[in-house]
Design goal:
Layout: H1 2-28, H2 49-62, H3 67-78
Helix pairs in contact: 2-3
Length: 80
């Protein structure tokens, strides 16, 4: 007597469980957030040695600095 009704009850329970799982998955399956990689850091600007040397030459020509100071600063700017 338990055979057919028991099978029906099991089948119904399985179907209900599957439906509930499908509803749960549909409600809580959110797509993972898409993260973008940060942009690469900007390359450091190349120092404009020529402009600095022109300014130093101008200061030397005006007599504000002497030749020795000009040469020392030029070497430090150029890394010599």
């Amino acid at each position: 007597m338990f055979g057919p009704s028991r099978r029906v009850a099991r089948r119904t329970a399985r179907r209900t469980t599957r439906r509930q799982m499908a509803m749960h998955d549909a409600m809580y399956d959110e797509p993972e957030p898409q993260y973008q990689a940060p942009p690469p850091p900007a390359a450091p600007a190349e120092p404009d040695y020529t402009e600095e040397l022109r300014k130093l030459a101008s200061l030397r020509d005006q007599g504000i600095i002497n030749d020795e100071e000009f040469e020392a600063k030029k070497k430090s700017i150029l890394g010599i």
